[in-house]
Amino acid sequence: MCTGGFAKCLGISLIPLAVLCILCNILLFFPGGVPADDSTHITDEVFYLGGIIGSGFLMIFPALVFLGLKNNDCCGCCGNESCGKRFAMFTSIIFAAVGILGAGYSVIVSSVAINQGPKCATASHNWTYPFSNGNYLSNHSSWDSCESPDGIVSWHLTLFSLLLVTGIVQVALCAMQTINGLIGTICGDCCGVRAPHQQGVL
C-alpha cells in the first residue's frame, strides 16, 4: 500500500474516534445521564474539554489532512514530479504531531479524572470528591457513599475510560502517520513503484 493510501485509512479511522470523544465529553456534562442542578455539581475535569478539544476538534484537522493525501495532485517542482507529494507527506507529519498533542491532553485529563473519581452528593448532602483519598476502583462497595446522582460512579468511569482508551488509540494512529509521513517524504507516495511513463521501459 502506498503511503498516501495508508494515510487515508488512518484518516478514516480517526474521524469516528473524534466524534465519539466529543459525544463522551458532552454526556459528562449530564451527571448520571440527567441535567445537573448546578455547574458546581459537575466534575472539574469535564470542563477541561479533553474530549471536545483534545481528542475531538484537534483530531479532526489531522484526519482531514490524512484523507486528502491519497488524492493530492501537486504538479511537482524543480523538475521533480514527486516533489509535491513529498511536501504533502512532510506536512502531514506536522498535523500528526498536533493530533498526538491533542489526544495526549485528553489522555492526561481522563487519567486524572478516573484516579480522582466523580463529584457527587454524600450522606451529609455535601458535593465533594469522596474517593480522592482511596482506591475506589477495586472497592465497589465504597461507591454507595455517592448518594446522588444515581449511577454517577459507573457513568463517570465508563465515559472517562472511553476517552482514555480512544485517546491512546488516536496517539498510536498519529504516531503511525508520523512514520508513514517520514517514509513518504523520503521515498515519495509509493516506494519502489515506477511512475506510469516509466512502465514498460526496461
UniProtKB/TrEMBL annotation:
GO BP field: negative regulation of pancreatic A cell differentiation; negative regulation of type B pancreatic cell development; pancreatic epsilon cell differentiation
InterPro entries: L6_membrane
Swiss-Prot/TrEMBL keywords: Membrane, Transmembrane, Transmembrane helix
TM stretches of this protein: 12-34, 46-67, 87-108, 152-173
Gene Ontology CC annotations of this record: membrane
Keyword Membrane: yes
Primary site of residence: membrane
Membrane-protein topology: Multi-pass membrane protein
Compartments where found: Membrane
UniProt record similarity statement: Belongs to the L6 tetraspanin family.
Official protein name in the record: Transmembrane 4 L six family member 4
